[in-house]
Amino acid sequence: MSNDRVVDLLKQAYNDEIETVMNYQTLSIVLDGIHAEEIKESLKADVQEELGHAEQLGQRLKQLDARPPGSEAFVARQATLQPPEDTTDVAAVIDGVLDAEDDAIETYRELVDAAAEANDPVSEDLAVTLLADEEAHRTEFRGFKKEYRDD
Ligand SMILES: [Fe+2]
Known about the structure:
There is one protein chain. The protein has 151 residues and is mainly alpha-helical. It has one domain: Ferritin (Up-down Bundle), CATH 1.20.1260. The chain contains four helices and no strands. The protein has helices at residues 4-30, 36-63, 90-117, 121-148. The longest helix is centred in the N-terminal third of the chain and has 28 residues, at 36-63. The N and C termini lie far apart (53 Å). Bound molecules: fe (ii) ion. Fe (ii) ion binds next to helix 2 and helix 4.
């Protein structure tokens, strides 16, 4: 039984959660306008939740005799989640958040399968829990997107 794939996915998920924390934090500060207020509040709350995800992933890595990466191993992947030039462009931010959530959902689905294959029910259970959180975030932002569809 090899846990290499599980460890790699846990590290990737940790990396992505930390990047999400940075981008949501930045976006919750830089956006402007009355349309942005609800998005900013939601992102601010999600920062804490995503940080909690990173904490759980890091602890699981430690339990598997691995470790979460530091900043020199960090790889930025969220090109569509960068702060927009036009700070009132809430629609672009919503699309970026949906990309990030889709990406996280894909990673957690892979982790669920890899952990099941490696007979690692604890990592599998964690992946299922985090997957549920990301699906809830995606649903919330799909709701926000409906408001901007015809703008
Ligand atoms: Fe997350």
